[in-house]
Amino acid sequence: MELLDVDKLIEEFESMTKDAGNVQRETLKKILEENGCAEYLQNLGLNGRTDPESFKACVPLVTHNDLQPYIQRIVDGSSSPILTGKPITTISLSSGTTQGKPKFVPFNDELMETTLQIYRTSYAFRTREFPIENGKALQLIYSSKQSKTKGGLIAGTATTNVFRNSQYKNTMKAMQSQCCSPDEVIFGPDFHQSLYCHLLCGLIFHEEIQFISSTFSHSIVHAFRTFEQVWEELCADIREGVLTSRITFPSVRSAMAKLLKPNPELADLIHKKCLGLNNWYGLIPELFPNVKYIYGIMTGSMEPYLKKLRHYARDLPLISADYGSSEGWIGANVNPNVPPELATYVVLPDIGYFEFIPLKENVEEANPVGLTEVKVGEEYEVIITSFAGLYRYRLGDVVKVTGFHNLSPELKFICRRNLMLTINIDKNTEKDLQLAVEAASKLNTEEKLEVLDFSSHVDLSTNPGHYVIFWEISGEVREEVLEECCNCLDRSFVDAGYVSSRKINAIGPLELRVVQRGTFQKILNHYVGLGAALSQFKTPRCVGSTNNEVLQILCNNVVKSYFSTAF
């Protein structure tokens, strides 16, 4: 397998970003030529035109809801060209949810290719700063099952669709980034068992491991928190050369049996190293002496995990991975020596056509501007047009332009425009909260009682963090009904990231706190006291820890509290 030519990759990136404006026009032209026969574009009257001006005049800005009917027909098996010229055969389940269901997003070969292009680009810049030898990587990655839709399409999370693609493995080999764990572990049916085996494989190859990575930094922290619990068991497996009985799946056991041989010296070494650590500080470089860096998405809702990750990593560089979503990729991190809190992403002008809605205080200011027209210091909402059937699609992400790399902007991720509740990979919006409260409050109607008002809070003072929902109810409700309401709330957040995190206790049980009558009136009085107009008052649906006074009002008025037992 030929290794990637780092200098050539960087050279290509430099020349492309120097000509970002023309590359954008050409990319749009290519997207529209390849997909011009699609029903969606046919209906908009482009009549074969591929220039940005006609495109913007004919094609409306859309959200996922607008495209849902088209995507649903694809999912149901329609073979006519609906959103793309070539049929879509794979669907990504995005973690974001609308209407209480995970979102379906088209996935195709072109999207796979842009994924690998982003990987290769950031790898080139990373390797220039932190050269790695031809060893292995401890990749804490997990692939959920792919299922079939009613129409026979393959459906899985975006990462699963990538990991299961044959090109992924070849690219990883060319990037000297082969996972030290066998496929049976990555694709194992049980997350806990896969995690244990990932750690065991890492230890077996401990001197060859060049870097540690995962999709999200949360998974890396979670893995080493688990290591603290199971390290002695891992040592016993290595000493005896026999896998613990906690691994029950035959495919995983037989794959691990090929790697595991009795090695008392290694077991003693690990045992000694672990006992020598103070509160596990510097665990990663101690176990893996040749690791050059730690890599994963560390921005946005992942930032709270950096403190713990640094504790484990000591002075190893933490590098934030690239910027994208289930819908498509946007930018690569080409400044890997910058700490994650300051990470920015340079937009690759040939992986999609990008527009930006200017925002001031999260309010739309004007018409969208093109990639090379954004201004440094301003905030924007990202709009993407992709090779996978999304045209002028509002991503809902707010980014800040921090500078330019040649003519392509460097973006810092700020937040999701409509995101409310998030602890790690979970993403729940005001709509999701509303649907959960509606579902759970139906249980009160038999009691002839209603939920008068509600709010929420992400409590990170507990470990792991958990969702807190505040309810004001119109009268006394029986204990057992409120316990069931609490479980119902927990189950009603159907976002894939939330459900999977709850199952492995990476997010703690949801807490329902019932507040006394008049609490939300006190919040209203507080805002009016600050000079807010009564007619424009909105109950804050999610109270962050920065909104301390409102959080105090809620917490000081709690009369009962319940924890979910749903998972």
TrEMBL record:
The record ties this protein, via InterPro entries, to: GH3 (IPR004993), GH3_C (IPR055378), GH3_M (IPR055377)
Does Ligase appear among the keywords? yes
GO molecular function, a single term: acid-amino acid ligase activity
UniProt entry keywords in alphabetical sequence? Ligase
Domain GH3 middle residues, every copy? 345-416
**UniProt domain GH3 C-terminal: residue ranges:** 431-546
Instruction: Choose one Gene Ontology CC annotation of this protein and give it.
Output: cytoplasm
Pfam families linked to this entry? GH3, GH3_C, GH3_M
Xref: PANTHER family: GH3 DOMAIN-CONTAINING PROTEIN, JASMONOYL--L-AMINO ACID SYNTHETASE JAR1
| Protein family according to the UniProt entry | Belongs to the IAA-amido conjugating enzyme family.
> What is the protein's name according to its record?
Jasmonic acid-amido synthetase JAR1-like
